[in-house]
Amino acid sequence: MKRKLKLVLASAVAVATVSTVAFFALPASAEAASFAVTNSWNAGYQGEVTVSNPSSSKIDTWKVEITLPAGSTVNQSWNATLAASGQNFTFTPAGWNATIAGGASTSFGFIVNGTGRPTSCKVNGQACTGLTGAPTSAPATTASSRPAGTPSAAPTTSSAAPKPTTASPKPSTATPTPTRTAAAGTPLAANGQLKVCGTNLCNQAGKKIQLRGVSSHGIHWFPSCYPGAALDALATDWNADLFRIAMYVQEGGYESDPNGLTTKVNTLVDMAEARGMYALIDFHVLNPGDPSFNLTRAKEFFAKVAARNAGKKNVIYEIANEPNGVSWATIKNYAEQVIPVIRANDPDGIVIVGTRGWSSLGVSEGSSSAEIVSNPVNASNIMYAFHFYAASHKDNYRAEVQKAAASLPLFVTEFGTVSASGDGAVDTASTNAWIDLMDKLKISYANWNFGDKSEGSSILKPGACSSGSFSGTGALTESGQLIRSRIRTADDF
Question: So where are the chain's domains?
Fold first, then answer.
């Protein structure tokens, strides 16, 4: 899921001390901006800065300069260009977001290694004043979703810093699980084993198709949200084709309990199969953003799940949720090491490769799909992931998808109706524009997220999972009702 933090620097605002939020008051003539920590862990936190233009005249460019105390450093950012000098970090436009119209705003985010909050800041050369409430001790961890590319929720309990892996994975000895016969009339019965044909997803007959469904939240955080009744509702009430199984790697996920999480994933694969839905196994890496950090874990995990599920026709593999802060060449190298592990066990399964900039095809880091087109992954039967959050990612992202779809097989494995923080108001107009585009291009998608966390991107209202009520609209949020209405329309199989 996504990135998360908000920096609000409010113009001419005197602010009281808050333990987890640092506020800066700016001169009346300056742009407004703000900072709030909404996602943190023992060894760091995420932040998002929103630069606003309250005037009636446009701003042609902007620059935010932040100083952190010793022991804390920014190790990655999105929707901005980062330059560092000692403890000073300068953020400038990514290119497409330099101009801010009167009354408009733009946002960028970053991840800090260390717990120190900013000690000073400048916006377009104007010194910030009134800095208060900047704790340097570790804050309490709060649940949240990902940063600017796509939000991935944060853990509800503190987790230790991730540990790199060095051991070589052992060959899988798992016995394939018997395949169930899908019920007549279900997406799985209608389409069978999927494959990539050209730039499209195709069924067993070679027909171009589109799968529509939802993504879980972290399956280790919200286990009560995924009983049989929930998948029954998705299959029969929503008419969903696809269920994405989001298995976090860090943040208390696979790294902490590899056997337990692997079992949970396999159980959900079986539950989706029994209801005639496709299961998208998501290796949900987010922080660190370099998937190579988890290369050994990825090989171990995918060797096991691919061997166990090789006989099933409903499994799709997503090998890296949202790579960020690394080059496309690094992501490609990771993919070309993990894909053979899957192919050795399941030669027919489709593999989806995450893309640069939180799976934004590079757009959120100032690049584009051209780097993938000119240097594709050396493997067959693969697709490339794209993620968006409708309130944050609009026309320039849609234009990139339209262009990329002519050359690359795309799969929107995660999208939200709200901002890239995973929270905020539903942007109905932008969401519908996105879904219309995906329908037109036959791009499959999974909405984030089928969970009941108290945030804008959740499909279910808080408490819905514990109540066991999943069918109909009574348990749905505004976002859930919108997505259900779009998925329930007839499939074109």
Answer: 6-132, 187-487
Q: How far is CA 29 from CA 9, 26, 55, 64, 441, in A?
A: 13, 8, 9, 15, 46
Distance, CA of 337 to chain centre: 22
CB atoms near residue 257 (< 10 Å):
13
Could you give the maximum distance between any two Cα atoms of the chain, in Å? 68
3-state DSSP assignment of residue 103: coil
pTM of the model: 0.71
At the top level of CATH, the class of 6-132 is mainly beta
Q: Which CATH number fits domain 187-487: 3.30.70.940, 3.40.1280.10, 3.20.20.80, 3.30.1370.60?
A: 3.20.20.80
User: What are the phi and psi torsion angles at 440 (to 5°)?
Assistant: -60, -40
d(CA 471, CA 237): 6
Give the integer Cα–Cα distance in Å for 384 and 191. 21
Active site residue 455: no
Burial of 243 per CB tally in 10 Å (0-12, 13-18, 19+): buried
Which residue in the list 31, 322, 400, 455 is annotated as catalytic?
Answer: 322
> Helices 258-274 & 295-308, crossing angle to 10 degrees?
40
Catalytic residue among 48, 273, 414, 455: 414
Estimate the crossing angle of helix 478-487 against helix 428-441, to 10 degrees: 20
**What does the pLDDT look like over 305-331, one tens digit per residue?**
999 999 999 999 999 999 999 999 999
How many Cα atoms within 13 Å fall on the side-chain side of residue 225?
A: 26
400 noted as active-site residue:
no
Q: Model confidence over 275-316: pLDDT tens digits? A: 999 999 999 998 899 999 999 999 999 999 999 999 999 999
Which alpha helices (H) appear in 324-475, and where do they start and end? 328-345, 356-359, 370-373, 395-404, 428-441, 464-467
